[in-house]
């Protein structure tokens, strides 16, 4: 089995960013593999899914210990997401591995990155600035299952959506649920979702074990390092900057011309600046009153958060 030193190094950088920001590997690792290392989208997606299985358990354990997981919501999310994730990998298999099929998958991946990035930016405006909310909410079974189906299929097909799309959809279904419970619940359901998608990728032969091993060796230790460093870094700003890069990567995937990409970069930079300034102004009264000092570090330290990716994206 061949271990690629440069891929290990690149995965270590991505792992550090995941730990620092809590963003998912689907939004960071897969674009790196495709754009920098020339890995086919199908192999990149499958390998990222398998590597995520080694990143998520610690985060899930932390949320269970903090009692920030709504097990009833997790159950109905998994009813939808687990079979849908496997179905997503099956659809990827049906697309084949021709050049045309890989191009189509690249377009789908770019679309997923754009949706995921916009979801994170939406979350920045409407979720992270909302009041604490409540710990317990009545389970809305059908909408929760539908959220699981949509998010699970996207993860199985593109590896993007567990920590961005699903989380934002949960905000609409459970607007009164506390943010930390939203995060913990989403992360807990993403583990069986990712396992299902990984089993599908293995069954249909998309996983490159040498590639996956290099990713795991580089990323997993650095995710832990990044999570320990996160409370001393400006994770909020870094997450927004990376989200902007992910959005631009998605636009490049779908074929946006270079001049238009430059215009998009300026607009994205302006939007991130506005969001960051708004966040800073909103936190000043909380800091002055001695509140609001815990939520951000806690969300950063548990690192392996949505995802992300979102899975995390």
Structure description:
The protein has one domain (5-295). The chain is built from 12 helices and 1 strand; from the N terminus they run ααααααααααααβ. The radius of gyration is 18 Å and the shape is globular. The chain has helices at 5-21, 25-35, 41-65, 71-95, 99-126, 141-158, 165-173, 179-203, 209-229, 235-253, 258-288, 295-301; one strand at residues 307-310. The protein has 313 residues and is mostly helical.
Map the helices and strands:
Blueprint: H1 5-21, H2 25-35, H3 41-65, H4 71-95, H5 99-126, H6 141-158, H7 165-173, H8 179-203, H9 209-229, H10 235-253, H11 258-288, H12 295-301, E1 307-310
Helix pairs in contact: 1-2, 1-9, 2-3, 3-8, 3-9, 4-6, 4-8, 5-10, 6-7, 6-8, 10-11
How many helices? The count is: 12
Q: What's the Cα radius of gyration?
A: 18 Å
Biggest pleated-sheet summary: none
Q: Strand tally, please?
A: 1
Helix content: over 70%
List the domain count as a whole number. Answer: 1
Q: Report, as a whole number of angstroms, the end-to-end distance.
A: 29 Å
Sequence stretches where pLDDT stays below 50 over 5 or more residues: 291-312
Counting copies of identical and different chains, the oligomeric state is: single chain
Q: Find the structural class using helix and strand composition.
A: mainly alpha
**Percent of residues in beta strands?**
under 5%
Give the SSE string: HHHHHHHHHHHHE
The averaged pLDDT comes out at: 80
Q: Per the principal axes of the C-alpha atoms, what is the gross shape?
A: globular
